[in-house]
Each structure stands twice: as structure tokens, then as C-alpha cells.
Amino acid sequence: MQKAATDRPARRRDRIRRLSGLYAVTPDLADTRTLVARVEAAAVGGARAIQYRNKSADAALRRRQAEALAAVARTHGALLVINDDPALCKAVDADGVHVGRDDGSVEAARRIVGEERIVGVSCYDAFALAESAVAAGADYIAFGSFFPSSVKPDARRADASLLRRAAMLGVPVVAIGGIDATNVRELARAGADAAAVISAVFHADDVTGAARAIAAAFD
Fold first, then answer.
1. pTM for the whole thing?
2. What is the rounded (10 degree) CA torsion for 144, 149, 153, 155?
3. What is the CATH number of the domain that holds 153?
4. Strand ranges, E, within 42-160
5. What is the pLDDT of residues 1-28, one digit of tens each?
């Protein structure tokens, strides 16, 4: 049975409450100094959450980069979420972990990260998957891709109606996939609490300005 929001520990409830606006997802960068500089620029621009995602790094580099980003997140009051690695999330004292279809269950992630950290789940274009995730204890759900994505060009496309429908589930709803300053307001109006963005922020010449333009859609 799904836990009521009030049954969650206070620190976890606070982390859930803070998950809104721009949710910046890192690109694969081997240069930690460059990664940190770009993430800091995104945080200055209004990113309220950072997801550390690096599919090409080895375990040692991932640990170093996650530790560095944890310090940036603390400095700027942003959440740090680790993609698909609950053990790394716990090791660097991140705020939470994000899991996809092939990354293990919500329950398995919860056993590792504990009760005070958040667990988010990719639900693609499937409302039933979101219902199951929330029932299992997910603290937020993510749908997408809403627009063509250069990161995942073959990703399934989700309809914006999912965002409004998902409000009934009582957790933050994150939109992802091809989002930029030209289309983010459409998703915010449709019910997204946050927008997960990689390219439109981190590949911009002015990372802070790009972040600010997207974050403004949620003001």
C-alpha cells in the first residue's frame, strides 16, 4: 500500500517539496572541472535540482564527480539526485536516486538509500507504470519524451495529457525529453512540476542564461 505523504520522514518531505522548476541533468563529461563549472552555472541560473548522470564514466570517476557535485548542490541549495546508482547516492550523501526500467525496483533502491532520501522513477509514456511506482513508494515520477531528443532519439513519445492526469497521484511530476525555453511553458501549463533538461542547458553557450530562461516557466 502506498504511504501517505505525511508518513514520510520530515527531511524526505522537505526534499520532495523542493523538487520543482528546472531539474538539470548532467551530460557525459570526463573533465570534472568543466562539469562542476557548468553545473554551478546552471544552479546560479535557477536549477533547483541536479541529476548526476554519466553513462560512460568508470566507478572511480563517477564517485569523484558525484562528490564534487554534492558540494555544488549544497552551496546553492539545490537537490542532488544520482541516476540509477543507489549505492553511490548513499555514499556521497546525495538527496536521492532516480531509477529507470532496468535499474531495479523502488523497494530495492529504498533499502539502500534509506527513508530520508527521495526515489524517483522513469515512467516513459505509461500512466499504469506511474501508479505502480507511487504505490511502491516513489517520491516523484517522470514522463517523456515529450519532444524529439538528441540524447535519446529513439525514446517513446509521451502525451502532455499524462501530466495533468498524474497530478492525482500526489507526488511531483517531472517532464523530460527535448525540452527547451521555447516549449517548456507548454508542459508547465499541462501540469509538470519540473522539467528535466540536458542539452538545452549544458550545451548552451550561456549555461546560466539558458537555465534562467527555462526556470522562469515555473515562476
1. 0.95
2. 0
3. 3.20.20.70
4. 49-52, 79-83, 96-99, 118-124, 140-143
5. 344 556 899 999 999 999 999 999 999 9
